[in-house]
Specification:
This protein is mostly helical. It contains three helices and no strands. The protein starts with a helix and ends in a 7-residue tail after the last helix.
Length: 94
């Protein structure tokens, strides 16, 4: 694919993500976070494949590693935020 087309798809998806997150009510943030974690899991698998592939060269390996790090941060942060939100619904101890 052409690099300009890939950049256009990236910018369009970033804009769509910002618009989607800003319009979601606060009650749906936890299920949305769970869905985001699932998508990040798919990203981690793709990043592992890109990093381990010898046909992509060193650029593919570097981009795969960067994607792996960012997706891992997203998954860990998502679980931390979800856990924090679920703590709000637990009863306080005596």
């Amino acid at each position: 694919m052409d690099l300009v087309l890939l950049f256009f798809i990236f910018v369009l998806s970033a804009f769509l993500g910002l618009e989607l997150i800003s319009k979601v009510p606060s009650q749906l943030h936890t299920p949305l976070m769970s869905g985001s974690n699932a998508i990040s899991g798919i990203t981690i698998v793709g990043a592992l494949l890109a990093t381990g592939s010898e046909s992509e060269g060193s650029l593919g390996m570097i981009l795969g590693f960067a994607a792996l790090v960012m997706a891992t941060i997203n998954v860990v942060g998502g679980y931390a935020v979800t856990d924090r939100m679920l703590q709000m619904f637990k009863k306080k101890g005596k």
